[in-house]
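hi! just following up on the protien thing from before. the input was this:
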Amino acid sequence: MVPIDTFLPVQSIISMATIAHFTDPHLPLTGASPRELASKRILGWLSWRLRRRRNHRSDILGRIMDDIAASAPDMLALTGDVVNISTRSEFAAARRWLEELAPPERLMLVPGNHDRYVRDAERAGLTKLSPWMTGRADADSATFPTVRYVGNVALIGVDSTWPAPWREASGMVGPEQLQRLRHLLANSAAKGFCRIVLIHHPPLTELASRPRKALKDAGGLREVLVEQGAEAVLYGHNHEWAHQPLETRTGIAHILSAPSASMAPGRKKPPAGWQLLEVQRKRGEWAMNVLRRGLSGNGGEVREMERLALSSLSH
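and the predicted 3d structure came back as:
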């Protein structure tokens, strides 16, 4: 894997900002103690051993990351599920992987449900990933929503994870975080930024693959987005390509997802992929060119899948 050290320098003003979005890498499950498995983790461990380890391959993830590195984006946006069942060894391995991939100021992470698989995820090591959630190398915790500024873009990270019950992969944002998100969206718009929200779970009820995997307070999040507006929302969780426009008070919010960055070809879900957003201001409106790249169906190469030309202008 090529380290992401070829980024363009982020200036205070950039005419075009580039954001590389990838999601759900599901790094290999490196180990779990008997004590850790005496919990909900046992279900995830069995799932990994019986099925998921053949779906999520580190060699494919490496090829996707090499392809991202070749594009030299201004920022990486990772929308969760770095690990599988939130064990100590997984978080230690995830920390090493992120350190090799990019410094905290060049990668923005929001957690996924597998990163907070159980109630003691922080104690097990989720806090080890805090620098990439906050952008500060010395951070040992994160308060959401988080925000990063990349040229003319405000990246706003939302934590949709909670220790869901057994056999559930649902999400929840919560009223306090929704209220802070409302203010962040308003303030960022007032300062002239393009607002891109990062979240793991599908932000709209109709985008959830199953009720047990849905965002429980998607209605509240939708209300905030419609009221305050956003130019884009990037998410993961479903392991598939999607684009859903949402009409808001300030224009169109483009809701975009990508497949798992480690998914092998020949599975039920699309092979691994990622998307590059090029954001610029044109004639008073935000314009986003989205380049989607993914593994070919036979696994032979990473190639262009689709190009989208998106605008914040309402129709």
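Residues 2-14 have pLDDT under 50 and may be disordered.
Residues 16-311 form a domain with the Purple Acid Phosphatase; chain A, domain 2 fold (CATH 3.60.21.10).
cheers
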